[in-house]
Structure formats: C-alpha cells, structure tokens
Design goal:
Elements (H helix, E strand, L loop, with lengths): L13 H14 L1 H6 L2 E5 L4 E6 L15 H23 L5 H6 L5 E9 L7 E11 L3 E10 L4 E10 L2
Organism: Rhodoferax antarcticus ANT.BR
Protein name: Thioesterase
Pfam families: 4HBT
C-alpha cells in the first residue's frame, strides 16, 4: 500500500483483529469452505494461508489446486486488504463501528493471471491496497506456493461506499 493511504503508523487493537478474523474466517462461509486463515493483518498488507485438501483439487489435475479456488482466494484477500485499509483510515471510530463498515464491501472487477500450476501442500496469499477512495478501492494480490514461487497474480476493484 502506498504511504499516502495512511499518514501515521497504525496499530490495530486486539479487538479489531479478532473481529476481522471472525468476519473473514467464520461469517463469510465461502472463506470458511476454502479454509482461508489470516496469518498477518497490517494496514499496508494482509496475508493468509490455504492448506491443500482433497476437495480443493481440480477434477483432472492430480494434486493441483483448482483455478476457481485460486481466484476466489485472491478475491477474498483483496477484500481483506480493503477492510484493513478502511479500519486504519477510521481509527478514531470505535472498533464495532469500523467492523460494520464492511457490510457494503463488494467486488466490482477482478483480473487473475495464472502463471504456474498450483501444486503444493499449502499456499500463501498476499494483498495490498493501491488506492482507497471514498467509493472505490484498487488492490493487487499474489498467490504463492509453499516454496515461495509466485503462482498467480490478481488486481481488483471494490465498492466501499
């Protein structure tokens, strides 16, 4: 995330982090189905992990994670990055009020580039906000193998009003 998004360093409260994890990992049922687990939540970058499971493997590609799982994971991560950026922008508000801001968040556009097959025991997903406007946020995301190789990239726009 560019430095002009947040003018002063921000540290999220434990209650905010717990609230975002609950929303992202439990209340968004599709994220729960994917097994997305947040590993780092900072205003400038978020990371998560997906462990390989038999039900995430493509029908014809043995031990390869399905492209739809990759796309859905990257989209979810872009949304998470926007949540973190919104939370950082409104640190003057109570935690619960900041968490309620995510109710209207939605994907406008998503582009995914598949660079290599998704083969591995687990995968790391990263995302950052490139621009956070009053109505639209632009993000950039990465999907990496356990060995650190870049497998897919994505860019997306989200409605934040």
């Amino acid at each position: 995330m560019t430095s002009d998004l947040i003018s002063t360093p921000v540290s999220f409260e434990p209650e905010f982090i717990a609230g975002i994890k609950k929303v992202f990992e439990e209340l968004i049922v599709f994220n729960q189905l994917l097994g997305l687990k947040i590993t780092s939540l900072l205003p400038e970058r978020v990371t998560a992990r997906i462990d390989m499971r038999n039900d995430l493997v493509g029908h014809f590609a043995c031990n390869r994670i399905h492209g739809g799982v990759i796309s859905a994971g990257l989209d979810a991560m872009g949304g998470l990055a926007v949540m973190a950026a919104i939370g950082a922008r409104h640190m003057d508000e109570p935690v619960q009020h900041r968490l309620q801001r995510f109710a209207k968040l939605g994907t406008i556009d998503l582009r995914v580039d598949y660079l290599r097959p998704g083969i591995g025991e687990w995968f790391e997903l990263r995302a950052e906000v490139m621009r956070l406007g009053s109505r639209v946020a632009s993000t950039r995301m990465e999907f990496l193998g356990a060995d650190g190789k870049l497998l897919s990239t994505a860019a997306a726009a989200y409605i934040v009003s």
